[in-house]
Amino acid sequence: MDFIYLVASSFSLLFDPLNLIYIVAGFLIGTIFASIPGLTATLAMALLLPMTYTLDVTTALMACSSIYMAGMCGGSITATTINIPGAPSSMMTALDGYPMQQQGKGALALGHAAIGSMIGGAIGALLLIAVAPFVAQASLLVKTTGKFSLLAFAIIVIVIAQQGRMLKAGLAACVGLMLSTIGLDTMEPVTRFTFGYSDLTAGVDLMPVIIGTFAIAEVLIQANSPFDAIKATEAFNKVKIKRKNFFPPLADIRKIGLACYLKSSLIGYFVGTLPGAGGSMGAFLAYAEAVRTSPNPETFGKGNPQGIAAAESANNAVCGGAMVPMLTFGIPGDPITAIMLGVLVINGIQPGPQLMAGQAELIAPMLAALLFSAVVLIPLTLFLLGPYFIKIVAIRKDVLYGVIALLAVVGSYVSTYSSFQMFMALGMGVFAFYLRRNGFPVITMLLGYILGPNLEEFLRRSLALSNGDPMTFFTNLDSLFFIILTMIFIYFLAIRKPKKSPVASSADK
């Protein structure tokens, strides 16, 4: 209760002009970086990290919080307007956001994304403030075997959700898992599948894979689909965009239902408390749960606002959840909290179980800024800049996608400072282009690649601890829980409802 009071009193710091300027500037920078493919909020925070040396620690942490929240919601802008997620956590948003854009409802889609982001971000921040110590203890119950079963659950669910092309989805996921094994072994100092190329020793970096799979591949798709691009522009020109168009009718929000927002936010928050899970997994699981419980699962992937609401509520709620292991154990929940951990350490703050008790006055303003960013800055940014976001689709396609290709290539180089990885992004783009042309869902490939290293590490550690006995996954309660959950999802998605793929991405068509 004392900590909650301390956070509440920290809102007074938001009225300090210097703090407010840095929070708003951080949010705008995070939004811009997250909306540009290749320039994520992680990169924005990394580039701005040197500035924290000259700032008061409280101001620096508040600015980092606003960048974090902006990075989660900003990726939905280009995911909706041009089908290129600005951040990995917005991949699921594109599945329904882009079809709405093609139907002339892009402003409405961004409005649903903003509302989901606001609700999810607020719930995540409030849960972090209220129950962080208890959730931290609960996350300790998920041991090595449980973490493996959780990751396997995420991959299996997204594969079986691709009803009608599960075989291709499974093969794509296997390709992603194979890509994740390139480079140094996760547990031994040996290289694998480098074929003698020293540049592959560090493996294939995440950013080139994401940039190639979405940005470069989308440029190639659009270059081969001029009719679709023209139709999308015509759909935009038929609709006169006003600021009020970005705010969904109350009837639409009621149709989505408070339960969807709340359930998706809780999924995102608790996924965020697991180190390494991140916004992508939270969005995947919340979207799959929305499909499972929907009376019309066949409408997902065709412009269903509920899919946008579920994905955005979850990935923004991850912000609050991911800070739990970072603050209480010094274990970053995702790349952005890893940088925030660096800000803490630079300023002499050591994360750990005693942090909230001994230095709560430094942490409380950061959490207040996180909540402020979700409740105030997300809707305010949409209201002020929304019409400019939606006009992305009205830009000439040769100019727009030429600039995107340039930014994608530059972004892939800036994120790694490696010419090899830059060319790897181009190669991944061509490869993803042919996968999509042949009906392979690249989203499962990317999920397999992202989760692959941890999946392998937890599998090998589990077997090592059990002397090679696979029954360890069934005898540990945390692992057994996720195995049972996997069976439930298989029943509802693959057996009980054998309908057309509810998550068939318009990007894969």
UniProtKB/TrEMBL annotation:
Transmembrane segments: 20-49, 61-87, 107-136, 148-164, 266-288, 362-386, 398-414, 442-459, 479-495
Superkingdom: Bacteria
Domain DUF112: residue ranges: 20-447
Signal peptide coordinates: none
Keyword Transmembrane helix: yes
InterPro entries, per the entry: DUF112_TM (IPR002823)
Pfam families cross-referenced by the UniProt entry: TctA (PF01970)
Keywords, in A-Z order: Membrane, Transmembrane, Transmembrane helix
Matching PANTHER family: TRICARBOXYLIC TRANSPORT PROTEIN
Protein's name according to its UniProt entry: Tricarboxylate transporter
Organism: Cohaesibacter celericrescens
